[in-house]
Amino acid sequence: MKIFTASQIYEADKFTINKQQITSDALMERAATKLFDWMHSRLQGAQVKIHLFCGIGNNGGDGVALARHLHEHGYDIAVYVVNYSEKRSKDFLINLDRLKERKLWPEFLDSDCSLPEITPNDIIVDAIFGIGLNRAPDAWVANLIKHLNSSSAFVLSVDIPSGLPSNRSPWDGEHVVRASYVLSFQVPKLVFFLPETGVYQNQWEILDIGLDSEFLVKTDTDYELIGRPEIMPMYRPRLKFSHKGTYGHSVIIGGSYGKIGAVQLASNACLSAGSGLVTAFVPECGYHSLQTSIPEIMVLTDDADDSISEIDIPFVPTAIGVGMGMGTKDETIKAFGSFLKKVETSIVIDADGLNILAKQPNLLKDVPKQSVLTPHPKELERLIGKWKDDFDKLEKAKSFSMKNDCIIVIKGAHSITVYKDKGFVNTTGNPGMATAGSGDVLTGMITGLMAQGYAPLQAAIFGVYLHGLAGDVGVSTAGYEALKASGIIENIGNAYMELLRPPNKENEEKV
Ligand SMILES: NC(=O)C1=CN([C@@H]2O[C@H](COP(=O)(O)OP(=O)(O)OC[C@H]3O[C@@H](n4cnc5c(N)ncnc54)[C@H](O)[C@@H]3O)[C@@H](O)[C@H]2O)[C@@H](O)CC1
Ligand SMILES: Nc1ncnc2c1ncn2[C@@H]1O[C@H](COP(=O)(O)OP(=O)(O)O)[C@@H](O)[C@H]1O
Ligand SMILES: [K+]
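Above: inputs. Below: predicted complex with potassium ion.
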């Protein structure tokens, strides 16, 4: 699913209004009807107090129109107009008049007003600011937002939590509504998926308000949300008359004394992702543990006992994953540098492979084109430098990717795979995966996919999705705290099956 910017959404509005020959008010009515249907289907007329806080722009207009529908269906509502500007939007005013025609008089809030009382069982509808927010809210509006946040009532935000800008970090985090649920029109907003800004909402859902599909299909976006519909076409089915050679020979290079487990996890994950053959290349000290723990893999060893000093692979691997647990000793840096000079096809670089690149940026020129780099936030910072906020981070990652023609997987709660000027935002995974070694598993999986013929960018996007899905299946039995990296590996097969599971009858009926 495409992630549009605010200006693209405004363009989509205009395009829809022209093409479908409707008024902007009719579009607002569609939005309000969808909001109402969503609430009504859950509340079923329950007499719970609903406080609607409405701004004076179109977000406020949505709120006021929603208030009318709720009133007409007998709900117990209180409407507040958060009067933060004289510049009221045309459609807000139309909807305000419609309320007044029904003898519903909102309370107008301004800098002198007292704050409405809200009890824990009430519902707050937050329609103060939408995607039009372009500066910090005034002090009294910020104060109102803090008041809403201090209540324990359920907060339903319209389109986006108020006070959260759509294209930068907030001016002050305390002045952003903490939404229990966001009903976002037509498309998700990028801020929902970034670590600094995703914290303002618990859950989000898209409401289809019928923006024109021609515009949505034709318009290119900088970011795409990756779910099952985007992943399925990438899947490469296994062929009946295939053999292990069909699915490639992966080599996993890494490890040092006390960190052989990283290679073990990556190699195991590589096999489970479907690589035909897997060879691990480790320092001598890793030989016995690898041979005994994973009988399916082959092991090559370095001459040195406790760290890698020379990488010598006596065949041409189909795919290579390198760096986990490898350390950054001088001899290892040298070995990694010479290895990069020899290798010709795209590789996957993780952990200490990335740390070495950050220490010795001159090695970057030898990294094969379209290699996949899988940094966690600290490794990313070492590579691209400090960033001001998440948006700056993404821009820096994009220029790094452009300059070095590499794919960067920015790992985190919603890992984002960046290639040149595009970002692919993952939707699977959970906090149970914040556990030692889960990154090694990802590197192994992406390597295993490349061995099977997935192009590097597809291997990265598909691998991140499948890794998260394996984690999601894993927590369903292990629980968040007890999920381990090896538990993610054990569920790679279940993740494939979950991915390939035909939609069941029940789901079909719901659609
Ligand atoms: N295609 C869509 O998604 C649709 C969106 N609609 C709604 O329209 C909203 C956008 O409406 P608007 O463009 O009117 O913008 P908002 O309602 O978000 O904000 C209103 C206006 O306030 C001003 N403003 C911005 N920051 C301010 C601040 N800190 N203090 C005081 N004033 C400030 C701006 O001039 C802005 O246009 C969306 O979020 C959505 O709720 C719907 O009405 C219909 C269709
Ligand atoms: N809160 C979270 N939600 C979803 N995925 C997560 C979360 N925390 C971590 N992960 C995933 O787990 C992996 C952690 O990688 P990394 O930090 O390199 O671990 P390690 O170095 O221990 O192998 C990444 O793929 C990341 O996206
Ligand atoms: K809002």
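Residues 9, 12-13, 27-28, 31, 55, 57-62, 84-85, 89, 129-138, 158-159, 185-186, 209, 211 surround NAX (ligand 1) (CB under 6 Å).
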